[in-house]
């Protein structure tokens, strides 16, 4: 990595205590993100992507809780802060974008009022200056004629425009880190392309670090510098995006890449990973992928693999690589 | 010449749709209209589409949200009545049939699969009952033994086991539920399956399982598919021919490979440009400006003209009709006049 990490997640564990025992939704997850870097996080639904994101922004819904590991922003622990202090950090240093823009917008306030309020709570400027900044932000995220739109209400915007407003809101305080959880999943393809171009540009121009959660490998390929592939609460593989996509090492990633239909690739059948990801209550012993893995061998069924280096900056949690293949 | 001829020669079309339209009255209540002086509002969800599907063929519709794909799907299974035009299935025109019994001779031969397999499965029924229901409804078999044997066969056909029949839908994953809805759809021995976004709610690895299953079943049973999706890569993979819809009309109809290799309509080209580049060729994509306008007051002339870099005065007033270009049908004045150049479009950038 060229830069000091801005975000460092180390051994993160998220649990849901319940009547019938404790579910482990995120298990020993570690990664970091440098300023200006986009880390993509992919995986099927239930893999633990959103719980990882929620833990970072300090918005895990109880009874969910961080049960182990640490999260640091700029060298400072943020996983054990009192609620109010975390709220301040969230407003000032971390921006959040969710799949449904309506969860981030108040239907009763005009878009301008929401922006101005957010701006004035985080910096000491006049109402007038805040409004000018709000206009500039709307312009920046590609809302045409912002002077005309700023006093309108969220319901007067289309889905794609609302998501732009949410991005503008997330940018109000010039955050160092943006956590975007499926920001384009609910949008049409043409709008999706626009939002992704926007996120990329912001990241480049402001040096913002972005954690981009999605189940869409295509979006990752376009946007991310590095990618983490999650399976059953753990990171199966992590590495530079080109490397992981062109030369996946973990058998799950290999299967996943083959299962994606691609334009111009004429395959009669898609690669099929039989079965489905286990529920949290039924995670098998050893490697969680072992019941579906075409390469499974004895060790996989008893011992859980940790991540090991398979190429420079590229790691996979798979016993196939235990003999030091590709060790840098 | 407004027919899109089916790709597979020597076989007549099984399904033929001509000038199909479906409007919805979305006016405010009469009292409000009178008090506020508002006019009646008609939404043209589907406004004149033509296509034909050959036996054993997969014809797909793609397009952005609200362009009318699901409305065509519901028309094609008789869930909606057409406002205009016809839908012929094996020679029977049922587009405007009003009485349920008029459709009786063909009803069991056409089935539908929906996006959300959970919503379409009765949660209180066991899977075995769910799959047996069409067999009983159409009186295809009598006696529990015969029906059970048939259900076992259907479960195996969708790669589940007879033992799964005793469970309830909530005990299954999303992909398995979609298998159950496919088994139910197959129970009446249909020839024509209308599949509305059957994999859009599924993870890609599960989507691959369902797409593979659908292809296998098509081969085994000689099925004809009308397949609907907003995902161009999925459509490329599954289809023989593709229709690209925009605001209730077909912009372009072409064999799948030709459409993706040589898209002609500016909207098709814009859509293709939105696909993320998985092969990481470094291709620069041009995000296009604008969004799909409301179908209540669609733009005049060519509905795509406000977003089209090739629009001219004619496009703003005259609605383009589909015209043949090689093996494609393209509804575009620019293409007809030869003023839309080949190659990538330098579309106006997002504002
Ligand atoms: N029953 C209805 N009453 C009124 N309007 C309707 C009705 N059904 C559909 N529409 C409208 O018709 C248009 C086409 O809808 P349709 O569901 O066919 O779109 P679609 O292409 O399937 O979109 P999506 O990709 O979002 O599923 C939309 O503007 C929709 O709001
Ligand atoms: N309130 C909760 N109680 C118990 N388990 C939960 C709760 N919320 C989420 N989970 C579980 O945590 C796991 C990870 O969820 P999530 O991070 O949302 O997955 P993803 O975003 O990758 O789809 C899932 O198995 C989910 O069922
Ligand atoms: S550890 Fe074993 S079971 Fe797990 S992915 Fe590697 S080879 Fe397959
Ligand atoms: S008819 Fe005109 S506006 Fe419509 S797609 Fe063709 S060139 Fe563009
Ligand atoms: Mg999620
Ligand atoms: Mg639909």
Protein architecture, described:
The complex is a heterodimer of chains A (328) and B (351). Chain A has 328 residues and is α/β, with parallel strands linked by helices. Chain A has 2 domains: 7-93 and 173-327, P-loop containing nucleotide triphosphate hydrolases (Rossmann fold), CATH 3.40.50; 94-172, no CATH class. Chain A has helices at residues 49-57, 83-93, 111-122, 127-140, 146-149, 159-171, 189-206, 217-223, 241-246, 251-259, 298-302; strands at residues 7-18, 21-33, 38-42, 65-73, 76-77, 94-97, 177-181, 209-213, 226-231, 234-240, 308-311, 314-316. In chain A, strands 6-7-8-3-9-10-12-11 form an 8-stranded mixed beta sheet, with helices on both faces. In chain A, strands 2-1-4-5 form a 4-stranded antiparallel beta sheet. The radius of gyration of chain A is 21 Å and the shape is globular. In chain B, the strands form 2 sheets. In chain B, strands 6-7-8-3-9-10-12-11 form an 8-stranded mixed beta sheet, sandwiched between helices. A 4-stranded antiparallel beta sheet of chain B has the order 2-1-4-5, covered by helices on one side. Chains A and B meet through helix 7, helix 8, helix 9 and helix 10 of A and helix 7, helix 8, helix 9 and helix 10 of B. Residues 16, 23, 25, 43, 45-51, 61, 64, 280 of chain A line the site of adenosine-5'-diphosphate (ADP). The site of one magnesium ion has 2 residues of chain B, from helix 2.
Q: Cα-atom Rg of chain A, whole angstroms?
A: 21 Å
Basic shape of chain B: globular
Distance between the termini of chain B: 40 Å
Largest sheet of chain A: 8 strands, mixed
Radius of gyration of chain B, whole Å: 22 Å
State the secondary-structure class of chain B.
alpha/beta
Question: Secondary-structure element sequence of chain A?
Answer: EEEHEEHEHHHHEHEHEEHHHEE
Identify the strand order in the major beta sheet of chain A. Answer: 6-7-8-3-9-10-12-11
Mean pLDDT of chain A equals: 91
Strand percentage of chain B: 15-25%
Number of separate helices of chain B = 12
Task: Give me the CATH fold name of the largest domain in chain A.
Answer: Rossmann fold
Helicity range of chain A? 25-40%
Name of the level-1 CATH class of the domain at 13-109 and 190-337 in chain B: Alpha Beta
As residue ranges, the low-confidence spans of chain A are none
Strand order in the sheet with the most strands of chain B: 6-7-8-3-9-10-12-11
Give helix % range of chain B: 25-40%
Number of extended strands of chain B: 12
CATH superfamily descriptor of the largest domain in chain A: P-loop containing nucleotide triphosphate hydrolases
- State the largest interface: A-B, 48 and 45 residues
Largest sheet of chain B: 8 strands, mixed
């Amino acid at each position: 990595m060229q830069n000091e990490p801005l975000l460092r997640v180390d051994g993160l564990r998220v649990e849901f205590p319940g009547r019938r025992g404790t579910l482990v939704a995120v298990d020993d997850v570690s990664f970091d993100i440098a300023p200006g870097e986009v880390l993509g996080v992919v995986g099927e639904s239930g893999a633990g992507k959103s719980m990882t994101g929620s833990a970072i922004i300090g918005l895990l819904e109880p009874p969910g809780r961080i049960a182990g590991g640490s999260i640091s922003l700029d060298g400072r622990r943020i996983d054990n802060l009192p609620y109010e202090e975390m709220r301040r950090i969230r407003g000032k240093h971390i921006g959040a974008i969710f799949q449904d823009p309506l969860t981030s917008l108040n239907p009763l306030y005009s878009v301008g009022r929401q922006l101005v309020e957010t701006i004035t709570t985080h910096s000491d400027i006049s109402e007038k200056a805040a409004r000018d900044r709000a206009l500039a932000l709307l312009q920046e995220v590609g809302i045409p004629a912002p002077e005309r739109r700023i006093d309108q209400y969220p319901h007067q915007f289309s889905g794609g425009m609302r998501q732009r407003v949410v991005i503008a809101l997330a940018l109000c305080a010039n955050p160092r880190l943006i956590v975007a959880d499926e920001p384009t999943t609910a949008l049409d393809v043409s709008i999706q392309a626009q939002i992704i171009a926007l996120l990329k540009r912001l990241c480049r121009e402001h040096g913002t670090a972005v954690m981009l959660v999605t189940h869409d490998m295509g979006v990752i390929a376009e946007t991310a510098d590095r990618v983490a592939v999650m399976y059953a609460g753990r990171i199966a593989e992590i590495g530079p995006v080109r490397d992981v996509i062109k030369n996946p090492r973990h058998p799950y990633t290999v299967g996943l890449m083959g299962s994606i239909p691609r334009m111009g690739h004429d395959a009669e059948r898609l690669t099929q990973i039989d079965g489905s990801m286990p529920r949290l209550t039924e995670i098998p012993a050893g490697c969680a992928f072992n019941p579906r893995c075409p390469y499974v061998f004895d060790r996989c069924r008893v011992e859980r693999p940790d991540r090991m280096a398979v190429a420079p900056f590229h790691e996979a949690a798979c016993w196939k690589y235990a003999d030091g293949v590709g060790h840098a | 010449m407004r027919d899109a001829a089916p790709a597979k020669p020597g076989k007549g079309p099984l399904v033929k749709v001509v000038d199909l339209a479906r409007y919805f009255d979305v006016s405010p209540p009469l009292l409000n209209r009178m008090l506020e002086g508002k006019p009646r509002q008609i939404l043209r969800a589907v406004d004149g589409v033509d296509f034909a599907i050959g036996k054993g063929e997969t014809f797909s519709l793609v397009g952005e949200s609200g362009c009318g794909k699901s409305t065509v799907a519901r028309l094609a299974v008789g869930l909606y009545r057409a406002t205009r035009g016809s839908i012929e299935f094996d020679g029977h025109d049922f587009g405007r049939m009003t009485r349920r019994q008029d459709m009786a001779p063909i009803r069991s031969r056409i089935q539908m699969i929906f996006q959300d397999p959970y919503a379409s499965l009765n949660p209180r029924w066991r899977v075995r009952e769910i799959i047996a229901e069409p067999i009983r409804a159409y009186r295809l078999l009598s006696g529990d033994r015969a029906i059970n044997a048939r259900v076992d066969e259907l479960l195996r056909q969708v790669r589940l086991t007879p033992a799964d029949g005793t469970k309830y839908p909530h005990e299954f994953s999303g992909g398995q539920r979609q298998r159950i809805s496919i088994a139910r759809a197959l129970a009446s021995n249909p020839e024509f399956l209308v599949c509305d976004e059957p994999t859009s709610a599924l993870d890609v690895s599960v989507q691959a399982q369902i797409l593979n299953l659908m292809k296998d079943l098509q081969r085994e049973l000689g099925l004809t598919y009308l397949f609907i999706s907003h995902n161009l890569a999925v459509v490329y993979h599954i289809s023989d021919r593709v229709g690209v819809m925009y605001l209730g009309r077909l912009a372009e109809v072409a064999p799948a490979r030709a459409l993706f290799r040589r898209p002609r309509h500016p909207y098709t080209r814009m859509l293709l440009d939105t696909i993320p580049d998985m092969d990481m060729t470094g291709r620069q994509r041009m995000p296009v400006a604008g969004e799909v306008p409301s179908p209540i007051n669609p733009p005049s002339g060519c509905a795509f003209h406000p977003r089209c870099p090739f629009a001219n005065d004619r496009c703003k007033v005259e609605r383009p009709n589909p015209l043949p270009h090689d093996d494609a049908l393209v509804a575009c004045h620019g293409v007809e006049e030869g003023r839309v150049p080949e190659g990538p479009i330098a579309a106006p950038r997002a504002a």
